[in-house]
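Running this now, will post back.
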Amino acid sequence: MKKKIFALSLALILALSLAACGGNDAAPADTQAPADSADAQAPAGSAPAETVKLSVAASPTPHAEILNQCVDILAEQGIELVVNEYSDYVVPNTAVEDGDEDANYFQHVPYLDDFNAERGTHLVSVAGIHVEPMGLYAGKSASLDAIPDGGTVAVPNDATNEGRALLLLEAQGLIKLKDSSNLASTPKDIAENPKNLEFVELEAANVPANLDEVDIAAINSNYALGAGLNPVEDALVIESSDSPYVNVLVVKEGNENNEAVQALVKALQSDAVKDYINNTFGGAVVPAF
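Update: finished.
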């Protein structure tokens, strides 16, 4: 009898022990499921993509205005486009050379080539964007025919834009250059000057402000626009739309294939930007793509 009681007790103890072990095995399985679900939703080590900043130096008009059309386009790609405006033609280049700016957009290739040669910089064009036809504007003389003997002409004083202005004057028969293929011509390179014109050489940005002091002036379209002049309506004569002076996006050599820079090129050469240029500037700025 005692043996039967002992056997029953032992069986009961074993049954309780097995039930307890089974409960311990189930508990971890219940707690593991939520952890697996959480891992599937947020993988270990994941982090939000960082925004890339791209800083570009530009003339206020039209370059900065055109660049601003690309801000939202690039933002969708995680690129913050910062447009910094400059009113001269030197600092935007030195800032890119020194690494203070990632790129610039204000100049044409002849000016860029001359700048590199003169200052030993290492700047390269990555894309052509638009042409700003240079124009001749009336100052004290209302027309080209009205310019008196000894009349004054204001021209930009940087090498390539001065040569460009002289070529425009030559095309109107006002002067004749020794070598019309020399884009760096200066007044010293004039072979014939039938009206004995006197040349006032000024920084390109300062030419519009001196328009009333001279008979006529050669003004770059961006500075004409900034001074409230409409190149198409106000210029006495303007370069043709096939001008070789295409304005380009520029970076320091070695940065041509930077992903953010290439994204900006694509945005600048998009149909949206082309439409903006055509609709906003009415021929004073011409897309080159």
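The radius of gyration is 35 Å. More later if anyone needs it.
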